[in-house]
Amino acid sequence: MSNRARVARTGYRCASCESRSAQWTGRCPACQAWGTLEQAVAPTRGRVAAGAPTSPARRISEVELDATRARPTGVSELDRVLGGGLVPGAVVLLAGEPGVGKSTLLLEVAARATGRVLYVTGEESAGQVRLRAERTGAVRDDLFLAAESDLGSIIGHLDAVRPDLLVVDSVQTMSTTEADGAPGGVTQTRAVTVALTGLAKDRGLPVVLVGHVTKDGSIAGPRVLEHLVDVVLSFEGDKHSTLRMVRGVKNRFGPADEVGCFELRDEGIIGMPDPSGLFLARFGGLPVPGTAVTIVLDGRRPLPAEVQALVAGKDIASPRRAVSGLDSARVAMLLAVLERRAGIRLHDAEVYAASVGGMRVVEPAADLALALAITSARRDIALPPDLVVLGEIGLAGEIRRVAGVDRRLAEAARLGFTRALVPRECGTGPEGMRVQEVGDVATLLESLR
Questions:
Q1: 63, 131, 305, 309: which sits with the fewest CB atoms below 10 Å from its CB?
Q2: Residue among 107, 122, 204 at smallest CA distance from 162
Q3: Is residue 137 scored above 80 in pLDDT?
Q4: How far is the C-alpha of 361 from the C-alpha of 369, rounded, in Å?
Q5: Is the dihedral of CA 34, 99, 132, 163 positive or negative?
């Protein structure tokens, strides 16, 4: 073996995506971020000396579970997404657009959680948080507020309060003297997250971090943040609607595709275990042309969705197509299929399509419902109010199977629907529901005449 000393190689590492480069460039070649390359020394190869273990290895069957079981937060819809609650030592990153209601939701969690809660705010004063707590009824003696932006001061508060839950709003406003850069920068954000994650694991303290998002909807800061934390939640909502959704993106303790529904009101944020009233329009029991109901799967959760269509005019040279809450490319494809395969004349008419309640419907399982809504609007024939429609439509006009038909039909039966149109070979459905299987859209639309 050679006795020559090994020379450490110097390279550059991207602070955003962790990719390495041999030389410095202004832009990362992997993630295309500007100014994120930092000098780093590549580790040299060599033998590593054995060290003393911090604790002996144990059989997996001998590891205790009582200290790592989830504890409910008091907000049932959030517990659904988390997989039962907050696990001691877990770090949760809640990301969302400004003004969507992240602070309101976490203040509700802080008011309902058992034990002491330390709420650290770096964006507002303690007085501003108190005003919101007064409005939402979140004032209690075991909730402590601290308006801090320095990591060392936060650790001091932890030692003084000894909380059972720590909420940091937000991680981009925190900084530490152990790292360079301005607060909110890549280096500072990563250093603060690493330090808080270490504290959470050492003390068995659940930590909830609020994160900002960029213009494209991704979490601001380095992508390594998503790998450091245990749970990543996306808080979504339209500013023109009261509906808010918490969607699991990553979860080490439960399902990563669960969804929780909330309604944002003046008095706070309210969980909605049954949000069907937001997504279904009511017309006094009277059927209206141009409407159809389907059941979509958002994660594991079946949700009713009503799609509406309006077809207006005739012999228009440049007809308008307007879409709200639906995939515009999918709507354009369905219009072409309906005209070519089913003989529905739409090329010279204006078509408007939308979903109800601010729900975003992009699942292909809603194709058949949208096709029936468009045809119903064109022919001015209303569909039965007790009918639910499931199915994906192909370019040849065939109706394809969709996943989770049993769960969708069970939810439709719970909501009072007694008839269903489904693709072939999808089963019989729940008791009391009449299920009709259909194979192609042309044959089905002939029956609407």
A1: 63
A2: 204
A3: yes
A4: 11
A5: negative
